[in-house]
Amino acid sequence: MVTPMATPLMEADVLSAWLAKAAPHPDLAADVWRLRPTLPRRLHCGVVFDVVLCHRILVEAAYRILAGYEQPLGPALILPQLDAGAILVPRGTDARWPELIAATQWPERVSRPACLGNGHAIQVPAPAPASASSVGWLQEPEVSDEFPPHLTSPVPLARCLAEARAEVQQRPEHRGRAHRVRSVLPGSWRTR
Questions:
Q1: Distance from chain centroid for Cα 189
Q2: Number of neighbouring beta carbons within 10 Å of residue 81
Q3: Residue 157 has what DSSP assignment?
Q4: In 120-159, which positions are buried (b, 16+ CB within 10 angstroms) versus exposed (e)?
Q5: Residue 87, phi then psi, degrees to nearest 5
Q6: What is the pLDDT of residues 111-144, one digit of tens each?
Q7: Is the CB of residue 76 less than 8 Å from the CB of residue 52?
Q8: Which sign does the torsion angle of CA 38, 122, 82, 167 carry?
């Protein structure tokens, strides 16, 4: 028996079904997204994934470092309006994130990356965006036989964010920028 090749439309449906699990009404969300696949998704954190949020420069540098260490990269977003990046991590990470960051010896007076769990929401781009969006993928979720997609492991992520912070602070054009981490999403993005 021949297995059909996955098409981009099939991949978008599989990804939408997974993302819909984090929507307030999963069945309704999946139906709406099937009809309008270019709509961005507003999803609750702490249901399917948690989200580590920090300055965009740190996320991009940490992902380069993770790739260099041959660590699996899970989905990550760029939030241009906040100049931030958001990394999807396993659900429950928010409970242990403060200890993970503290273990990296992150300086006390420097804003730390935040981990958003229950009570927060985040907007993710559509699997088939029609045009430029206020949110974009730095690393898209991979649709494969191992679904749901792999999420970035929080332990190496915390270490690589600290390494990225040290690296970025050495660059003259970025001195001080990595300190301005937005630790909380605007109130309008939180779940109600």
A1: 15
A2: 8
A3: H
A4: bbbbbbbbbeeeebebeebbbbebeeeeebbbbbbebbbb
A5: -115, 125
A6: 899 999 999 999 988 766 655 667 888 998 877 6
A7: no
A8: negative
